[in-house]
UniProtKB/TrEMBL annotation, chain A:
GO molecular function: ATP binding; hydrolase activity
Matches recorded under InterPro entries: CT_C_D, Cyclophilin-like_dom_sf, PxpB
Annotated Carboxyltransferase domain residues: 11-215
Organism: Leisingera aquaemixtae
UniProt keyword annotations, A-Z: ATP-binding, Hydrolase, Nucleotide-binding
Protein name in UniProt: Sporulation inhibitor KipI
Nucleotide-binding among keywords: yes
Keyword Secreted among record annotations: no
Automatic annotation (TrEMBL), chain B:
Pfam families: CT_A_B
GO MF terms, alphabetically ordered: ATP binding; hydrolase activity
Domain Carboxyltransferase: 26-301
Protein name: KipI antagonist
InterPro entries: CT_A_B, Cyclophilin-like_dom_sf, PxpC
Record keywords: ATP-binding, Hydrolase, Nucleotide-binding
Organism: Leisingera aquaemixtae
């Protein structure tokens, strides 16, 4: 990490549509850029400037949507630049109230049929792939695309494998898929180019629950291997057997 | 006093919509809300209430409804044939729907999304701060026969007002600003994009609509491996085969396809309302001009109430027209009228 921090790219402010601005901390995913984006988003949320309607993050950027009747681009840009100058955002610590989640997953079998393909792409046997994926402690780097859906990283370098050019027509809810040194845990059934290597029984978004979203930015996750029979037994548990441990 | 409306028959894709749920982007939930937000403002003006109240959005096809209590209603968005107990009811207007009366709404004559508003708004359950169904996110459900929708206390009064809608139901030109990734496209591609007459594809829905054209697909410069970035409604995403796809209120929150530009929020109703096959063109304008247009539109929407006029019965909709004495009081033109 230290050498990655040595020469961070300068943050870059761009407009998004007519009423948004994006502060990007890198043009590709890196650990410092992701930490900077999360910390900057948290700082924006804490300040709650008049006219700011919504803040959010992607992997490497913080996003602000604002009300054009109360703020203008020049004014907001000046404020963002002022906030950027206040500290070294690349050196930021992770958000507070983080948890470590242990989520049971079936690797391979007909429930996750692309494990062999993913293992081959990573240059591993299936057993090595399962050992590697279930040993990795990955972090929620962003939540997006669909409700509560985390992008988890960073996996060991062997997992820097491309997404498939041919989309899988339908990957089910709870699927654990791998590509580009990340895991995505799917919150909805959807077409995808990520490779389906594991299957969980976890429900990431429950609109009627008191806490509708299971995971928060910065949470860590580890997937422990179980059998298809064990997964069947977890289907009735809304958490799918997931257990959290406080990290803060 | 609150009331209710029962759905006797519902077209597919009929949902309750309001202005959506801001604040959940970072949990992967897009704002959602009415596909045509202007229609919500128009309905609110006709009923003299706030635009944040929930209405029923009808995707191309209406349905049949029965009032459980005296209700004030308004009809906006894509014009549809409507009648109350068999008597034609004007679109872009407010009406009284007495307890027990049946409201029948047919297919859209142009455009895509029609709206049924009630005094006090529909009071379906609130999820994450809004009543909008967000089917892509699994929030709420499409309305169906037998559903009874509670309505809120109606603080307003009066009906029989009309409003001339901004014509946005036949396609046309939408204005676009350069956004995050516009610079990934060569200038020649941007010019070709502006010069192309597109057709709204048939596969469109509340998440987005494809833009079809006869020419080649649009290509960004170089490799397309851009890091996944924030998506906003109005973004024009160019998919792998080069087809532009305009994202609407129920879009995903992040995406890796490059985006050629962003449609102005004030022009999104025209885009969302364009029916399959309607011709659409895109024109880039400077950000400063877009900001002025947005501010002016926000002001115009806030003042819509003053644009409402008392409804005069349309003679074409009067089945008993010939029973009226229409020519009494006519003069020869030679009388000394002073």
């Amino acid at each position: 990490m230290a050498e990655e921090r040595a020469a961070p790219p300068a943050p870059d402010i761009r407009t998004v549509g007519v009423d948004g601005m994006l502060v990007s901390f890198g043009s590709r995913l890196s650990e410092p850029a992701n930490r900077a984006a999360l910390a900057f988003r948290a700082a924006l949320a804490a300040r709650s400037w008049d006219g700011v309607e919504e803040v959010s993050t992607s992997l490497v950027s913080a996003y602000v949507r604002f009300d054009l009747r109360h703020l203008d681009h020049a004014g907001l840009r000046a404020r963002l630049e002022g906030l950027l100058a206040q500290r070294d955002w690349y050196a930021a610590t992770l958000p507070g109230q983080r948890r470590l989640w242990r989520i049971p997953a079936v690797f391979g079998t007909e429930l996750a049929p692309q494990l062999p393909q993913a293992a081959a792409a990573a240059g591993m046997s299936e057993a090595e792939a399962v050992a590697s994926l279930s040993a990795a402690r990955v972090r929620v780097q962003t939540i997006g695309f669909a409700p509560g859906q985390p992008y988890l990283g960073e996996l060991p370098e062997a997992w820097d494998i491309p997404r498939q050019s041919q989309l899988t027509t339908r990957i089910p809810e709870g699927a654990l898929a791998v590509a580009i040194r990340q895991l995505v845990l799917f919150s909805v059934a959807t077409p995808t180019g990520w490779m389906h290597a594991g299957q969980t029984a976890v429900r990431l978004f429950r609109p009627d629950a008191e806490e509708p979203f299971l995971l928060r930015l910065g949470d860590e996750v580890q997937f422990n291997a179980i059998t298809p029979e064990e997964l069947q037994g977890l289907r009735r548990d809304p958490l799918g057997g997931a257990r959290a441990e406080d990290l803060s | 006093m609150s009331g209710s409306l029962t759905i006797l028959r519902a077209g597919p894709g009929m949902t309750v919509q309001d202005l959506g749920r801001p604040g959940w982007l970072e949990y992967g939930v897009s704002r959602g809300g009415a596909a045509d937000r202007l229609a919500l403002a128009e309905g609110a003006a006709l009923l003299g209430q706030g635009a944040e109240l929930a209405a029923v959005e009808m995707a191309g096809l209406g349905g049949e409804f029965q009032a459980g209590s005296d209700l004030r209603i308004a009809l906006t968005g894509a014009p549809m044939r409507a009648s109350i107990d068999g008597t034609a009811a004007a679109w872009n207007a407010s009406h009284l729907l007495p307890a027990g009366a049946r409201l029948t709404i047919g297919a859209a004559r142009s455009g895509s999304y029609g709206y049924l508003h009630v005094g006090g708004g529909f009071q379906t359950p609130v999820h994450l701060g809004a009543r909008s169904a967000h089917l892509a996110a699994g929030i709420g459900a499409a309305l169906a026969q037998g559903d009874v929708l509670e309505t809120g206390a109606d603080g307003g009064q009066g009906s029989g007002l009309g409003l001339t809608p901004e014509n946005r139901f036949e396609g046309g030109t939408v204005r676009v600003v350069a956004s995050l990734q516009t610079a990934l496209f060569p200038q020649a591609e941007l010019e070709r994009f502006e010069g192309t007459a597109f057709r709204r594809g048939a596969r469109g829905n509340r998440m987005g609509v494809p833009m079809e054209s006869d020419g080649e697909g649009f290509r960004p410069d170089g490799a397309r491996t851009v890091v996944s970035e924030v998506i906003v409604p109005g973004d024009i995403q160019v998919t792998g085969d080069g087809t532009p796809y305009v994202l609407l209120s129920e879009c995903q929150t992040t995406g890796g396809y490059p985006r050629i530009g962003t449609v102005l929020p004030c022009d999104l109703p025209l885009l969302a309302q364009a029916a399959a096959g309607a011709e659409l063109r895109f024109r880039f304008i400077p950000l400063e001009e877009a900001v002025e247009l947005e501010r002016a539109e926000a002001e115009r929407r806030a003042g819509l109430r003053s644009q409402c006029f008392p409804l005069i019965r349309d003679p074409r909709s009067m089945s008993n027209l010939l029973s009226y004495q229409l020519i009494s009081g006519a003069i020869a033109g030679e009388e000394d009228v002073l």
